[in-house]
From TrEMBL:
Keywords annotated in UniProt: Cell membrane, Glycoprotein, GPI-anchor, Lipoprotein, Membrane, Receptor, Signal
Protein family according to the UniProt entry: Belongs to the GDNFR family.
Keyword match Thylakoid: no
Organism: Cynoglossus semilaevis (Tongue sole)
Annotated signal peptide: 1-16
Pfam families according to UniProt: GDNF
Segments forming domain GDNF/GAS1: 30-111, 121-218
Cellular location(s): Cell membrane
GO biological process, one term: cell surface receptor protein tyrosine kinase signaling pathway
Name recorded for this polypeptide: GDNF/GAS1 domain-containing protein
An example Gene Ontology CC term for this record: receptor complex
Amino acid sequence: MCLVCVSLSGMLTVAPKGFQCPAEKNCNPCLDAAKACNLNNSCKKQRSSYIATCSKGDSSKGETCSKKRCHRALRMFLDRMHPEFSHRLLFCPCQTEGCAERRRQTIVPDCSYIEKEKPNCLELWKVCRQDSLCRSRLADYLANCWMPPHTASTCPNQDNHQACLSSFTRLIGTEITPNYVDNSFSNWVISPWCTCKGSGNQEEECMNFLHYFTNNTCLSDGTTSSLKLRLKMCCMTPQSWSAQSLNSLGLMLSGPAAFLLI
Ligand SMILES: *[C@@H]1O[C@H](CO)[C@@H](O)[C@H](O)[C@H]1NC(C)=O
Ligand SMILES: *[C@@H]1O[C@H](CO)[C@@H](O)[C@H](O)[C@H]1NC(C)=O
């Protein structure tokens, strides 16, 4: 079933968002990604650690979590974890809303992402520019991910989607932490928590910033091709997720496909 699915989806060809693969309806690759992390002691420990930090605060009692601490814990997890774990959690291929909701929840958005008020995107951008970590990570994201619309290639970096996904991952835990906006699996959208409504005469400038995320061909193609490769793994038993089997899968694939699996 899995192999049929992979050959149907056409490994690394660029496909529209929300590629279909009916045979896989029953698997939840985001759940599988969490299980794979739990099988590695270090991944399990660090994941539990950021989830605990980001879940502190009982909203029914009016308590709020510390976003700052949550961001720090997320950065620690994502900086330390091999993409084999972190990218699988962040970019798991979903074909159900349940799966996509789990993917949206990966970074504990109630603490790390959502706030009562949605700031204007230009305001958020300004806050980011004033912080050296955020500023440099945003610059890195733009260098590896941003292509102006209507250009022939999809990524600036020799179509290196993986570099884009890594740069995207490093934005999580900064002021402009991006996330999936909802639990849509067929037409997912990624955005920082901000809006361009009410920007007045700065609306165009604001939309240009927002499009770095919402209209990003490198990010969406990279996510889609990465998701497709990961789909291959969703039917494996947890035992077969060892680094060894990932490596052998990598060897079976040629060219740019190989490094997506490492
Ligand atoms: C956990 O994963 C890391 C790679 O991120 C690896 O270096 C380490 O050996 C793994 N630990 C175990 C116990 O498998
Ligand atoms: C961004 O995407 C929207 C909707 O998909 C489209 O209307 C708009 O023209 C795009 N903007 C750019 C700069 O590509």
